[in-house]
Amino acid sequence: MAQISGAAVMFLLLLTVSLFCQDTAAWACCRRYSKGQLPVHLIRGYSIQTIHAICNINAIIFHTYGGRKMCADPTQPWVTDSIQKLTKRAWALKKQKKEKLILN
Amino acid sequence: MMDYGNETSYDYQTSYENKTSFEDEIFYDYESPCDVDDSGNASVKYYLQVYVHSLICIVGFIGNVLVILTYAFYKRTKSMTDVYLLNVAIADVLFVVALPLIIFSEQSNWALGDWSCKLLRGVYSINLYSGILLLACISLDRYLAIVQARRSFRFRSSMLVYSYVICAVVWLSALLLTLPTFMFYERYAPRETFNMSMSYETVTNSDSTPVTKETKTLATEVPDSTQQEQYVCFFRFKDNNTAKRMKVLVPSAQVAVGFCFPLLVMGFCYSSVVFTLLRAKNFQRHKAVRVVLTVVLVFIICHLPYNAALFYDIIYMFSGSDCEGHSITQLLLILTESLAYLHCCLNPLLYAFIGVKFRNHFRKVMEDLWCLGKSYIGARRTSRATSEAYLSSRRSVDSSGYENGTSFTM
Predict the structure, then answer these.
(1) Is some CB atom of chain B closer than 8 A to the CB atom of A48?
(2) What part of B 246-305 touches A (C-beta under 8 Å)?
């Protein structure tokens, strides 16, 4: 019986330790795609959600200036268009920076 | 960040600048990401882990260790049922040892690393499968002993060898079903899986021309990035097809092999047993029928809700429900899972301690342990030989009472 109560004590010890390490994690996954479209000038950026890890569908998450996130279907043409436009914007930005560096 | 999933949130934003209100109109039918672990579910899970799972683990550990000790000291595994009962107890003990370690790792961010994630999840899965499959084997054994009594009587002595083979097959198939878990479970930070986060910000220059500026918005996107990085132990795949297939296959296998198949076997075997018992003219038959019904009923009560929730979750995995529906499904999974865990501390009562013979052996073990403890203390004063003499005499009495048969005595 001694070894059993020893194990029980070990377990309680583990639990009390874990009591102090409590924290809640919050990751967000898209579960469905939005039906509407989002004008590209409202989009600040995007992130890619893949099925490879914790989420169950592939999706593009558009981040807007209003601080919202919108789930979009990556197979929709307007979504790929928006991403291309955003990429162009990024290139233009890099060019701008380079020119500034050269001028200075 | 907190209000993006809230559809009523656009009311108070009407005072914002034009752009935002235009955004609100667009967002009338938009979908935003759902929290994986919303705070309500997380706290329910936390309290269940601390108060319910700990109790299940302690009771399950004590009960199953007592079964193993009884077999180890006195009741040599002399029938098929004994071999199965011992294996069920071993599987259950490993399960209740792995469970608190998983809970602890989960809450300490899987600090032990990738191998602990794979190993603990693997051990958990192996014992889940083997425990349930062995219960199906026990039902098959009882079917052979009672319904096919005449036919199986000749083979009963050689059955012991078969039971070892069957146990080996059960453990191997449990290992085989766990292989995907070993292969694809990893410890990682979920944030890094949302890759290529590109963000831009338009700011107005001094000459009022809008300029797009690249900003590192990760800090604003994830408000708790100042805290310690969160890690999970979950599936991670390299390509779409494997991901899709495995995310359906692994829980489906759990429902099919870990519930439906054993339920079918138990349903067939025990209903045949009950019919045979009801036809027999034995004064103890009603008690036997009651025991069989309890065994089946407890199995269904413990495992049906969880497997139903799991099945529902598989069906709506890819064609998603809304965030609220998803949250409810997750809550149901958490609650019913605890019920399924409860089964491993009921097994010793339902299968081992319900048998009269097993109870007698257990009583002997307890008495001897008690005497051993007493004599251990006394040994410092008196000689040790008395206790050993006592023990050996006990054993000889026990072995003289051996008989050949199954322990299906109730």
Answers:
(1) yes
(2) 247
Output the CATH code of domain A31-103: 2.40.50.40
Instruction: For residue B212, list its beta bridge partners.
Output: B202
Whether residue B238 and residue A52 make contact (CB cut-off 8 A), yes or no, is yes
pTM over 0.80: no
CATH number of B38-191+229-367: 1.20.1070.10
pLDDT digits (tens, 9 = 90+) for B61-95: 999 999 998 888 876 667 888 889 999 999 999 99
Question: Cβ contact (<8 Å) for A25 and B194?
Answer: no
pLDDT in tens, B281-333: 777 778 888 889 999 999 999 999 999 999 999 998 888 778 888 899 999 99
DSSP string, A28-86: EE--S--SS---GGGEEEEEEE-TTSS-SS-EEEEEETTS-EEEE-TTSHHHHHHHHHH
Task: Report yes or no: A63 at the B interface, CB cutoff 8 Å.
Answer: yes
> Nearest residue on chain A to B370, judged by CA atoms?
A1
B54 touches chain A (CB under 8 A): yes
Q: Are strands B34-35 and B210-214 parallel, antiparallel or unpaired?
A: unpaired
